[in-house]
Structure prediction request, 85 residues.
Amino acid sequence: MKYTYRTKGTCSAEIIIELDDNSIVRHVEYLGGCNGNLKGISKLVEGLPATEVIDRLKGIRCGMKSTSCPDQLARALELMLKEEK
Prediction:
């Protein structure tokens, strides 16, 4: 399953995510934002179950913002898992 998520409240504009049939993260690509950091996050989550990524990243804040690029990834994955059902 491939999904494009438009972020809210972050420097990145979109996240492109691919999950396999077992809800394992196969690819993550951010558009915009802090390039090196977001490439690092993408590589770290590839191969992990979506639920584990959500547990690790949900609620992370960026400075005074109520969200962050990792938190937005967790939110996107939650939506993807809901759509799979």
